[in-house]
Design goal:
heterodimer; A: mainly beta; four-stranded antiparallel sheet; B: mainly beta; three-stranded antiparallel sheet
Amino acid sequence: QVQLQESGPRLVKPSQTLSLTCTVSGGSISSGSYYWSWIRQPAGKGLEWIGRIHISGSTNYNPSLKSRVTISVDMSKNQISLKLNSVTAADTAVYYCARDRITLSFDPWGQGTLVTVSS
Amino acid sequence: QSALTQPASVSGSPGQSITISCTGTSSDVGAYDYVSWYQQYPGKAPKLMIYEVTTRPSGVSNRFSGSKSGNTASLTISGLQAEDEADYYCSSYTRSSTRVFGGGTKVTVL
């Protein structure tokens, strides 16, 4: 069964770029017509959808983050990447990657990784 | 896009039924039957409980059911159990091809 694992720096300085990778195991990201999404959750708060990418390279982003976000896919490595630039403390959150199914629901999810923005 | 509106908390006694509402607009919840619900325990990743408004994934208890009327979707948990105490989030596809979540509802089993 497909499993997702987020990885990347846990601490990012303000104004710098947050970079995370989601590695997919148990299946190829190029099989099936899936999107792959990034979602975040500040401590004690709700979920916020960041954006998604299709294996074709087609992307959709949350309008509130669009100017700062880039999501890409590397099929050779079975990975999806997230870059969020010009970060502030408000970007401190647990970041999840999730498969975005044809039924437009998220399943499965990675375990999440906490990224803290601080100097 | 604005977050979908959910009650902050809902509680019930074991064995009772509770319903969590999720209110959006004609541009999201009301536009498509692509509402999904997620259960999240503290420190854990969310788990898909309902998709396409009413469908349960394999392995999810039939005590969980979903519905929708107009711009409001609902998740009902029947025969409430202690293990149902968690946070619940709704999500919807939007006319802009984006996704939006609700603010989350904390379910407490009394």
